[in-house]
Recover the amino acids of this structure.
C-alpha cells in the first residue's frame, strides 16, 4: 500500500492505495446504511431494494400464515395516493411462497391475454385511421390538444406540449398524416378526429380502462 508524506502533515493514502481499497467504505457504512433512523441516506433517499434493505425488512415469521419461519421474500415498487414511490417487502414460508408463485404466474398469464386483446383492438383502430382519405390539413397543435384532453381525463401529466408534439411526430406521423410544410408541422384533421388517443396512449396500462 502506497503512503505519501508531507512535512508537518499526517500521512495519507495515495490514489493508488485508495483505488485498491475502494470497497472498504461500503462495509464500514453498512450498519449506517440499514439503520431505520437514517433510512433517507440509503440510495440518497430514493426507493431501495438493496440486499441490506431487504434483510432489514425481512420478518423472522411468515407474514401470510404467521406460523412458519420465513424462507423467502418478495419485494415490489408501489406508489401511494400522492405518487410517492416505495418498496413493499413481504416475508413467506415455503408453503406460502409456492402459493404466491402460483398466483403470480396466473396473474402474468392473464396480463398477457389482456394485453394481446388490447393490442389487437388498437391495431384495428389505427388501421381504420390510416385508411381515411386526407381532407383538411390543420396545425399539429390540433392533435396535441386532442391528445392532452384524452390523457388528462385519466390522470395528470407534467410533460410539456412540446414533448407531446414530438411524441406524436415520432409515433403517429403516418396515422395522422403529419408533415412539415413551410417550416411548421401540420396534420390531417379527419384522421385526428377519428383517433382514440386514450386507447392508443394507455393500451398497455392495465390500471386504465380503455
Amino acid at each position: 500500500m502506497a503512503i505519501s508524506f508531507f512535512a508537518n502533515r499526517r500521512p495519507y493514502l495515495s490514489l493508488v492505495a485508495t483505488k485498491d481499497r475502494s470497497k472498504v467504505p461500503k462495509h464500514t457504512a453498512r450498519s449506517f446504511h440499514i439503520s431505520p433512523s437514517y433510512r433517507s441516506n440509503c440510495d440518497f433517499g430514493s426507493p431501495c431494494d438493496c440486499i441490506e434493505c431487504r434483510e432489514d425488512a425481512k420478518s423472522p415469521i411468515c407474514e401470510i400464515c404467521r406460523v412458519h419461519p420465513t424462507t423467502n421474500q418478495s419485494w415490489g415498487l408501489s406508489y401511494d395516493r400522492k405518487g410517492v414511490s416505495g418498496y413493499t417487502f413481504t416475508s413467506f414460508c415455503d408453503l406460502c411462497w409456492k402459493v404466491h408463485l402460483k398466483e403470480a404466474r396466473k396473474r402474468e398469464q392473464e396480463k398477457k391475454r389482456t394485453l394481446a386483446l388490447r393490442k389487437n383492438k388498437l391495431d384495428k383502430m389505427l388501421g381504420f385511421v390510416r385508411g381515411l382519405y386526407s381532407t383538411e390539413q390543420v396545425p399539429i397543435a390540433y392533435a396535441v390538444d386532442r391528445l392532452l384532453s384524452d390523457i388528462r381525463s385519466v390522470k395528470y401529466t407534467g410533460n410539456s406540449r412540446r414533448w407531446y408534439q414530438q411524441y406524436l411526430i415520432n409515433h403517429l406521423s403516418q396515422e395522422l398524416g403529419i408533415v412539415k410544410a413551410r417550416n411548421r408541422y401540420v396534420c390531417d384533421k379527419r384522421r385526428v378526429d377519428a383517433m382514440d388517443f386514450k386507447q392508443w396512449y394507455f393500451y398497455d396500462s392495465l390500471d386504465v380502462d380503455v
